[in-house]
Specification:
The protein has two helices and 29 strands. By secondary structure, the chain is mostly beta strands.
Length: about 375
């Protein structure tokens, strides 16, 4: 059963969102937020906050509403990916160790269970044993996933459900719980490895790598070419690439440093500098639910960041355009359908909103 959250009118929203400044060690300042000019809301808790009406007109459909597509049934929904061949959405319930399939015709179905660890956790290793981030595959008929339970980056064949582990360790030590990932045009994978999948997180006796890193995996004959992009982040989480592949975005889901960083990438794929793209720590302090998490990018380079208060829509220079809120924390988002629908994994449920903008990968 679908519940439609439509937009029925405009209500003035006073005040502006406070965005904190960046640390001195980073190279550029955070763009100043614009004052919110309008908020459209129905029902209570679900709203689209317009921060710049001219810029938002290029993104938001005039009659856009937020649709709730499922009941509240998931432990923590994550990692949506649209499968063009078949026209369906896959997404994860990480603590539920399940990947779900959603279509307009059939609604919600279980697609893969278990999605991560396949066995009994007698040693008490896992806090979240399932798959997390899902993205389109590097081979036809596949997806790639951050596999908490197998502590790996994996490839999944959508027909056979066979799984191949691509990256399992760094310098002989097992990853903690690979979380989110993004594929380059050359077939390399940037991914994050926070400790969220392990019971006790940083204090887990099963955590082998002391850092919580951002990594780059490059395919080679052994499949083991992994290098560190950044070893200094407390809770690296979502990752995305700009349309030209020259900028890597990484979110940090640390309530005391709730930021998204932008890394300039050299020809070798390594970061040449880092800057604060947006700092949302002030919104966490103000009580907005959620933390910086998954991201999507459209063909014009706008970035859609799950964070406190919902999905933050930003220009490529960090200028805020709008915020899409579902009334619950949003973990991630992905473009689907014809590329102009944004699907939102929002804690216990799945939602979507129709846009004017077109998602990266849906050109033509």
């Amino acid at each position: 059963m679908q519940t439609v959250w439509s937009i029925s009118g405009a209500v003035l929203l006073a005040g502006a969102l406070a965005i904190a400044g960046c640390e001195l060690k980073d190279s550029t300042a955070v763009p100043s937020p614009l004052q919110a000019t309008a908020v459209y809301a129905e029902p209570e808790g679900a709203e689209i906050v317009v921060l710049d009406s001219a810029l938002a007109a290029e993104v938001l459909a005039e009659s856009a509403g937020i649709e709730k597509l499922t009941e509240d049934r998931f432990g923590w929904s994550e990692g949506p990916v649209w499968i063009k061949e078949g026209a369906y959405l896959l997404f994860s319930d990480v603590p539920g160790n399940t990947i779900y399939r959603w279509t307009e015709q059939a609604g919600l179905e279980s697609f893969l269970q278990p999605s991560g660890y396949d066995g009994e956790d007698t040693a008490g290793v896992f806090r979240e044993p399932g798959a997390n981030g899902l993205i389109r595959g590097d081979l036809p008929g596949t997806i790639l996933l951050g596999d908490h339970g197998n502590r790996a980056i994996a490839r999944l064949d959508l027909e056979t459900k066979d799984k191949t582990l691509l990256a399992t360790d760094f310098e002989g030590k097992r990853f903690s719980s690979p979380n989110d990932l993004v594929l380059t045009e050359e077939g390399a994978i940037y991914f994050t490895d926070p400790p969220y999948g392990l019971k006790g997180e940083d204090e887990s006796p099963f955590k082998e790598i002391p850092l919580n890193g951002v990594y780059l995996w490059r395919p080679d004959e052994d499949g083991t070419s992994v290098v560190v992009i950044d070893d200094s982040l407390t809770r690296p989480n979502g990752v995305a690439l700009s349309p030209d592949g020259g900028t890597l975005y990484v979110s940090v889901s640390d309530p005391e440093a709730a930021r998204v960083y932008a890394y300039s990438l050299g020809p070798d794929g390594m970061a040449t500098d880092r800057r604060v793209f947006v700092d949302l720590t002030a919104m966490v302090e103000q009580g907005f639910s959620g933390l910086p998490d998954g991201m999507a990018v459209d063909v014009d380079g706008r970035v859609y960041v799950a964070g406190p208060g919902g999905i933050h829509v930003l220009l490529s220079d960090g200028t805020p355009i709008a915020r899409i809120a579902t009334g619950a924390p949003v973990a991630n988002c992905a473009f689907g359908d014809d590329g102009r629908t944004l699907y939102l994994t929002s804690g216990a449920f799945l939602a979507r909103v129709r846009l004017q903008a077109t998602g990266l990968g849906f050109e033509g």
